[in-house]
Design a protein that fits this description.
Chain lengths: ~210, ~325
């Protein structure tokens, strides 16, 4: 399914374009002393930031803390924000950097929790759900298919099987719906690197899914 | 040296995977899309691989959307409460330099004000000073060429500003004289219109000027490839430059604005700069520059009609970038 065909992603992106000027106004209001302007910015972006962080770090408590830390950093550095990139891009860059650093510091912990989860889920029911999902060549219906908790757990587990760099690029693309150019800006990498990294990440995901089936 | 066939196959597969992923993500050109679709139709393995990759995308993309717990906003609010707001932050005179520092700032500010006053008086005099009859008729040289220049705008709100410009162009009935292009994410508008049309468009564009990170005007001179550059240019300045009748006057005015804007950008104290812009502080009252007035029976020389009207067409290329 292409990005254009995904109405959720498309509406989120259209909404980004519409709100950019408002972001600038809110930032200016905050700089002039209106603290409520910052609260409105936090309210506007907190769910999306939290959602991306959660999918990368896989722990709700850590995700909440990292989201909060992201906004604190945004506030601390707002005087350095020159507006060369949009507020949205800048905020995501801070969030992803904080999360990747956190993941690297806690990689052993993450792998341990992954192993524990893996043991719980290696049952025949999960395998059957995944087998049905992968073998179904009909037009995909994500709403119906991924509503099952098993499949969601498989998705989370597959994501955690990727290294942080691959996980970040997948989450920004497939969950946040960013274009390749925007991902390049957030991760501060070349457009070609986004392309190849995303391709390798999906290929690796496919391998992990097949491993689960064995 | 023999090529390793396995390596070639792997590289080829990686290249196909990249193409298929870019296809899934709608990141290919129309030609590339057609090429991929041809490959999918012809090769069942590639079609199968596409479905596998799509499944991966669907699996991740359809994970439940999680909402941030209330603790996030509360934590940020608490952090905000601990901090002083940017506008409340006062310079630490006592700790940094004390009275000497304040005195130095005042001297610097006064020096900058004097320089600014001198430049302003030159500029204003050039606008409103009574003109004597020219030694030679100037109509021919005036008509030689209209304003021609390039306006480079940078903004982080590219799409919103772009939409506004398009709307302003439509509102001013300039769609026919605009040739919009997109190159590597930049928006380029090549505008040929009357001065009045340009002024009207600039009036509208003034509304989005605060959304710009920078605005630079390049005024073409009569020497090919040589331009005068005005940084931090305003819409009024552009209109005034474009409104001049001769290339020489346009260049002179552009240079004046360039100096003026540069001084304004580098004033030692932001508060003073704001006061100058507001024009209501006691400092600016002190340095107020009065318009030169006619003191005799001299009459301002009216320009011949053909001098004003003969060449009213202007050319402006607007480049909008990140």
């Amino acid at each position: 399914m292409t990005e254009a065909a995904n109405p959720d992603i498309r509406s989120r992106q259209v909404s980004n374009m519409r709100v950019t000027i408002n972001d600038a106004v809110l930032i200016e209001q905050y700089r002039k002393g209106d603290s409520e302007a910052m609260e409105r910015l936090v309210l506007k972006y907190q769910n999306r930031i939290y959602n991306v962080i959660l999918k990368i770090c896989a722990d709700p408590d850590d995700a909440a803390e990292l989201t909060q830390e992201t906004f604190v950093k945004v506030i601390e550095n707002l005087n350095k924000f020159e507006g060369r990139s949009g507020f949205y891009t800048w905020t995501f860059r801070i969030a992803v950097n904080l999360t990747l650093n956190y993941c690297q510091r806690n990689s052993r912990l993450a792998f341990r929790s992954l192993d524990a989860e893996q043991q719980q889920q290696d049952d025949s029911q999960v395998k059957q759900v995944l087998k049905d999902f992968l073998s179904d060549d009909s037009s995909p219906d994500p709403a119906a298919e991924v509503q099952s908790k098993e499949l969601y757990r498989i998705a989370a587990r597959t994501l955690m099987g990727l290294d942080e760099a691959h996980r970040a690029v997948i989450v920004l693309r497939d969950i946040e719906g960013m274009s390749y150019a925007r991902i390049a800006e957030v991760l501060d990498i070349e457009l070609g690197t986004v392309r190849s990294r995303l391709s390798r990440a999906r290929s690796k995901m496919r391998d992990i899914l097949e491993d689960i089936l064995r | 040296m023999k090529e390793n066939p396995d390596m070639n196959t792997n590289a080829s597969n990686e290249r196909i995977d990249e193409l298929l992923n870019s296809y899934i993500d709608d990141e290919l050109t129309v030609e590339q899309q057609a090429e991929v679709e041809r490959l999918i139709d012809q090769d069942a393995k590639i079609a199968q691989r596409l479905r596998q990759l799509q499944k991966c995308q669907i699996l991740v993309g359809s994970m439940p959307y999680a909402e941030a717990p209330p603790s996030v906003l509360e934590g940020v609010k608490a952090s905000l409460a601990d901090r002083s707001l940017p506008s409340e932050e006062q310079p630490a005179y006592e700790q940094q330099a004390g009275k000497k520092y304040v005195l130095l700032r005042k001297v610097l500010a006064a020096a900058a004000m004097i320089t600014l006053a001198a430049v302003l008086s030159v500029v204003i005099h050039r606008f409103v000073a009574p003109k004597t009859a020219p030694d030679k008729p100037a109509a021919r040289t005036v008509a030689a060429s209209g304003f021609s220049g390039r306006l480079e705008l940078k903004t982080s709100a590219l799409n919103a500003v772009d939409a506004f410009i398009k709307s302003a162009i439509d509102d001013n009935g300039l769609s026919a004289s605009i040739n919009p292009e997109r190159r590597q994410g930049r928006r380029i508008y090549s505008l040929d219109c009357t001065r009045e049309g340009l002024h009207s468009l600039l009036d509208d564009l003034d509304n989005i000027w605060t959304e710009l990170d920078s605005a630079t005007l390049f005024v073409n001179t009569e020497i090919f490839g040589v331009q005068t550059v005005v940084d931090a240019v305003t819409t009024k300045q552009i209109a005034e430059i474009a409104g001049q009748d001769s290339s020489k006057r346009r260049i002179e005015l552009a240079k004046d604005f360039a100096v003026l804007n540069n001084i304004a950008e580098n004033l030692p104290d932001k508060e003073i700069r704001v006061a100058i812009e507001a024009g209501d502080s006691s400092l600016t009252q002190q340095w107020r520059i009065f318009k030169p007035v006619l003191t005799s029976n001299q009459k301002a020389v009216k320009k011949p009609a053909d001098q004003v009207q003969e060449k009213q067409t202007v050319h402006l290329t607007i480049i909008l970038d990140w």
